[in-house]
Sequence to fold (337 residues):
Amino acid sequence: MSQLRTETFPKGTLIFKEGSAPEVPCMYDVLTGRVGIYLNYGTPEQKQLTTIEIDSYFGEMSLLENAPRSATAVALTDCILHVITEKDLQQYLQERPNVVKQMLQQMTSRLRGLTDQYMDICHTIAEREAYGVEQPKDDDLNKKVDHYAQLWNAYLAETHESSLYAQQYGWDSTWNQLLR
Amino acid sequence: METKLIPAGTVIFKKGDIERCMYDLTQGSVAIYADYGLPTERKLTTLSAEKNRFLGEMGLIDAAPRSATAVAETDCRMLTIDANNAKDYFYNSPETLLAVMRQLSDRTRALTNDYTEAVKTIAESEDYRKKGESIPKRLIEKLHGFADIWRALSGKN
Fold:
């Protein structure tokens, strides 16, 4: 029998709201059901970022960074969720080692991916720099420089202040676009 | 779990090494180098027991080759956490699990900011180029900084 706290959310319930700060930072993992993650939920700018399925987790930023919720979570079906606070971690690790492993793997692969992207852009800058004020005669290089320049403009046109945290976690589609 | 004493100057791991473990630095500081031992050697960062105690934590999780060389800067004490003892280690001190995740999360945030800054710098520079104007010195310097990072980490000096 699990010693972790579970909560039941009927379909359509708000689990947490963007911008809110939980009294006790916590994350959730999904035992049954599906959860939608949204920006600007309930406004004309509403945008669904992702869907969280069984045996996956969400809301970990609040637990890790004690930050306000960066997005809104809504039960898309009837859901049963584990509620994990800092003091539950030991129990959580014992009962759900695979979800913990998945969290660590996702964070690591995100960081590796980001490192590759960062190296690519630094490489592009180094190659472009070698040409000084001249226009490079290398079409591939020109395309890459243009690509990065355009990313910035697309990003500026679409980004919202509220999504800054979500962006870091690859949830925001604009940000995904910026990260290729 | 045994705490190892590592004398100052010891190479803890080298770029390219594959070792499925991380280190919990309980005392001292460790420097991370690109091109260690070469004329182009460059110190990338210093980790300390007080500030960022985990070293090579990504290697424990995905066993990818080390991306840089780690050298004990002072005498150090550290625990080696590998696939065999990771579960006990995290289970016995769950706060370390949170600390590893926080360290990953902090690095992701810092790198995201650096990346965003690089994208922005390219876009601004290209704006000047397209208008046929010369690029301001502050942008040239920033571009040079990013290019230097690539040169240092790729070993192409």
User: Anything to note?
Assistant: Strands of chain B lie at 3-6, 11-13, 21-27, 29-34, 42-48, 54-55, 69-72, 76-82. The interface with chain A takes residues 57-58, 61-62, 64, 67, 87, 90-91, 94-95, 97-98, 100-102, 104-105, 107-109, 111-112, 114-116, 118-123, 126-127, 134, 143-144, 146-147, 149-151, 153-154 of chain B (CB under 8 Å).
